[in-house]
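hey so i finally got around to running the thing on that chain from the lab meeting. sorry it took forever, my laptop kept dying and i had to restart like 3 times. anyway pasting the input first so we r on the same page abt which one it is
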Amino acid sequence: TPTPISTPDEKSPSTVTYRDLACKSRTLVLTDGRSFAVAQGRIQTGDTALIAFLENHPEFQREPVSSAGV
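ok and heres what got predicted. didnt touch it at all, straight out
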């Protein structure tokens, strides 16, 4: 089963969001066997292995960090 999308307080205080340019919904499986879900065309994570995967994948675009509350 896919792992739910991380929320900002899970794993790491520094999470990043990526926009999926090709699909609204899909499951990504890393080489170590862990899976992550893309929902509503976005995925949010603080997982370093997933971030490295997404950075090198042409169908994902990192979203700018919002300055909420500033």
